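To close the section, here is one more complete example, presented without commentary so you can practise reading it yourself. The ligand is NAP.
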Amino acid sequence: MLCLAPHGRQGAGAPAGRRHTRAAPPSHHHSPTASEEATLYDTFNLRGRVALVTGASSGLGAHFARTLAIAGANVAIAARRLDRLQAVAADISQAGARAVAVPMDVTDATSIEDALTRIESELGPVGVLINNSGVAVTRAAIDLEEDEWDQVVDTNLKGAWLVARACARRMIEARTGGAIVNIASITALRVAGGLAAYAASKAALVQLTRTMSLELARHGIRVNALAPGYILTDINRAFFETPAGEAMIRRIPQRRIGRPEDLDGALLLLASDASSYMTGSVIVVDGGHLQSPL
Ligand SMILES: NC(=O)c1ccc[n+]([C@@H]2O[C@H](COP(=O)([O-])OP(=O)(O)OC[C@H]3O[C@@H](n4cnc5c(N)ncnc54)[C@H](OP(=O)(O)O)[C@@H]3O)[C@@H](O)[C@H]2O)c1
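Output:
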């Protein structure tokens, strides 16, 4: 458990020259009271917030929507497949939270505006955006068709920008501030063969995150990115059962593929007031995969 020492210094921060000196216990040290503990955890709470998750009809987006609902948010879940969204919404509602399924194509600005207007009327203005919609085409760059490139970049980069732009405009107008979390990938930071359009779109999404964080800070809007490593979802389940997939898992320092719930801590941190002094940050959650030996 994290021990609160309001004016104390963490061990790792002690000046090097004093490292061997045995420090007397600080006189102000005390065990956290129940109310201090409650205040600390409360900063992660999303009670009363409206959170929009794009790409919530499957995989990580559906999981993120559940996690945000557990943290107290009323969630709007958006994607193109309405039947899948309705199933996710029903599942969340059954657990006692409020969830609304809204059709949205992130490559279409009109569809985004229509969805936001509907969310505002049913739940209220969006305060937390999880920009999660994404697609991947796995093919060597020289074999990639132009329409495949466009689909990946239009969804992962332009789509994320269109949704962030629409939400930020409304947050500025309503003077509410907000938190935008862009779901990037470790391929934004290191590459893998066959993912040219995907990796380029995610690297650009990281730069979009940084640029928008700079421009929106004055409006109380924070923009951060979460860069997951390989997380088991329906799109990669079959691959990770093949010898190539198993070999990849052996190259991950923690020797396992991620689970959607491995992202919960970082997601809640970036979505909530617990990260109120963070903007333009990129949090990697990958079991150490980026540190695999060259
Ligand atoms: N799984 C991983 O290992 C991993 C690792 C790093 C990053 N990520 C990122 O995490 C995000 C979610 O991935 P996932 O693994 O959960 O994959 P997934 O199950 O295929 O989910 C992708 C979601 O994006 C939605 N989507 C695609 N095109 C859309 C469009 N034009 N408009 C609105 N929604 C659209 C899909 O819904 P509809 O088809 O219903 O529209 C679907 O809900 C993606 O951005 C992905 O790049 C995943």
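Once you have examined the tokens, check your reading against these statements. The chain has a mean pLDDT of 91. The domain at 47-286 is CATH 3.40.50.720 (Rossmann fold).
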